[in-house]
Amino acid sequence: MKKIFFSTLLSVFALAFTSCSNDEDAVTNASEAEIVGTWNLTALETKDGRSDTNFDGTSIPTTFTAVGKDFDTVVTFSENPNIVTSEGSYTTVVTTTVMGETSTDEETGEDFFESDEWRLDGSTLYFGSGEEEVGFTITELTDSKMSLRYEIDETVDFFGATTSVSATYNMTLSK
Q1: What is the DSSP string of 114-135?
Q2: How far apart are CA 71 and CA 39, in angstroms?
Q3: DSSP result, 60-76
Q4: What is the pTM of this model?
Q5: Is residue 106 classed exposed, middle or buried when 0-12, 13-18 and 19+ CB atoms within 10 A define those classes?
Q6: pLDDT of amino acid 17
Q7: Is 174 exposed, middle or buried (0-12, 13-18, 19+ CB in 10 A)?
């Protein structure tokens, strides 16, 4: 049951991953020229994760965090057309607490981006297109480091259950 719930929670999180992030602490002068190039994924984390699933009148509160490790991922931002791709792998350590019971699992991720469009609008870096577009706030951008933040606060109906999900997702890329 716990594995099924955890898989459902991750699916809901992925489905809800379409809102815009908050612009607090955003850089003010990002340019496409600073983003174009090859970057290494060096940090990945989800913190303050909370969800509450209501199924047939029963509330199932959950907290979660995720921290990346063993990074071997290269992310490339090309221009004309603006496409982002990645190659390599990383491991995510996910800690979930459901109804007072905590579990930790490791999951291997590969090809972080699958040839997606990207665009810059002010301090927000968008990935995807149309309704599938996701905006990350650029919180730091130098010649050698780009830090991105995505804040999620969504409610999703999923297989007859309503789930509210909130979390802060951070990613760091380095040259």
Answers
A1: -SEEEEEETTEEEESSGGG-EE
A2: 12
A3: EEEEEEEEEEEEEEEEE
A4: 0.81
A5: exposed
A6: 41
A7: middle
Buried b (16+ CB within 10 A) or exposed e, 39-69: bebbbbbbeebebebeeeeeebebebbbebe
Integer Cα distance of 14 and 18 in angstroms = 8
Quick one: tokens of 129?
């297109």
CB-based contacts of 64, cutoff 8 Å, min separation 6:
9, 46, 49, 50, 51, 94, 95, 96, 97, 167
- Decide if pLDDT at 52 tops 80: yes
Q: Is the peptide bond before 61 cis (omega within 30 degrees of 0)?
A: no
Q: What separation in angstroms does the CA of 103 have from each of 6, 36, 67, 89?
A: 10, 39, 14, 23
Residues counted in the chain: 175
Tokens 């990346």: give the residue.
Answer: 68
d(CA 90, CA 130) in angstroms, rounded, equals: 28
> Contact at 8 Å (CB) between 94 and 118?
no
In this structure, of 10-14, 29-33, 165-169, the range with the lowest mean pLDDT score is 10-14
